[in-house]
Write the structure tokens for this entry.
Amino acid sequence: AQPLALLEGATLTGIRTAAVSGAATDLMSRPESRVLGVLGAGVQARTHIEAVCCVRPIESVRVYAPSAESVERLVSEWSGREGLPEDIQGVASSAEAIRGADIVCCTTTSSTPVFDDTDLAEGTHVNAVGSYQRDVVEVPAATVVRARVVVDDYESAWEEAGDLLQPLEAGVIDRDHVVAEMADLVGGSREGRTSEQEITLFKSVGLAVEDAIAARVTLANASVLGLGQDVNWA
């Protein structure tokens, strides 16, 4: 056996994480969703804006992060891009980002909740991808409790997802509160949403298989497009 390719991992991770959230958004959010709230202004924020706009008719994107400079940079870079709405703006608080939003993406490195549950309207879909450690959370426990929760993988989620482990350890949810894995939704054995009023939450911690598939697709596309550099591995 020998390596097939060497790829830049950070970019690949940003793309594949957002792609899975895009699939979750397609299967869990309301089809008529128009407003996207984004918490965070890094790589994942950028790729999640692209992914959500691929699957829903987003007309307005509102971005909040503690660093106003980071938000300004994102808005400047993403404004006017093909396939994205004209209305992409930075806002002054997480409340302003998520109030009235149909879809919310949490893409931060925060160790404490990044929004207040009372600001989240009925029917909102939330993608939470930033935290992947037991002692780190982005989503308030109150939101987890009232949400229909789907994960990328049960085993990984119950080992790494502080957003779920902390409410579990506090006794406000049990393991049955997570209703499905993404594979169940894709395969059609479980529904992503059961009502217009339901809060839905996709909690992702990332899986190696997602990297492997993304790498394979990238390699195939590079071959077709004649991109990259051939290396002699011998």
Remarks:
- The longest strand covers residues 35-39.
- Strands lie at 35-39, 60-64, 87-90, 103-106, 125-128, 147-151, 178-181, 199-203.
- Residues 9 and 140 are 30 Å apart (CA to CA).
- The mean pLDDT is 93.
